[in-house]
Amino acid sequence: MHSHDALLFELFAIFLASKVIGEIFERLKLPAVLGEILAGVVIGPYALGWIHPSDTLGSIAEIGAIFVLFHAGLEISPGDLIKVGRTALLVAIAGIVLPFVLGFAYMHWRGDAATESVFVGAAMVATSVGITARVLGDMGMLASRTAKIILGAAVFDDILGHAVAGSGGWAGAQRGGAVGKAGGPGC
Predict the structure, then answer these.
(1) Domain assignment present for 138
(2) In terms of Cα–Cα distance, which of 185, 186, 173, 187 is closest to 119?
(3) Domain limits at 125?
C-alpha cells in the first residue's frame, strides 16, 4: 500500500472503531468520548496494534482537539465563566492541591526520592479541558451552572497545573535529578 492508502485505512479504522464503541457507550448511558478513548486503546499499538502513532496522525489529532475546544467555546460565554470565577478558582485549587499532595505522599511513602515524588505529584495535577467539555456536552449539561464551574475550574486548573508541573520539573533539575531535567526550563 502507498502511504496515502495506509493513512486512509488508518483514518477509516479510527472513525469506525470510535463511532461503534462510542455508540455502545451512549446506549449504556455513558459519555461517548469514553468509548472513543477505549477504541484508541483497543486498536492502538498496545492492544491489537492496528494503528501506530505517526506525525501525520498526531497532526490530525491536534486539529481534532482544536475543534473540540472550539465547539466547547461556542457553547459558553466568557461572562458566564466570570460569574462562576471565584467558585471555579476554589475548585481548581482543590483539584491541584489534593492530587499533588496525594501523588507526592504516595511516592514518598514508597521510599522514592523527593525529585521523583514532586514529579509524580505534578503529573497528577494534569486535566483535559477538551475531554471535560466533551463529556459535559455528551451529557447535555454544557449550559448548566455546574458545567460552567467545572469548565472554569478546568481552565484555571490547566493554567495553574502547567505552573506546578513546570516548577516541579525545574526544582528537580536544580537538584540534578534525571526526572527533573525532562521538565525544566527550555523544554
Answers:
(1) yes
(2) 173
(3) 76-187
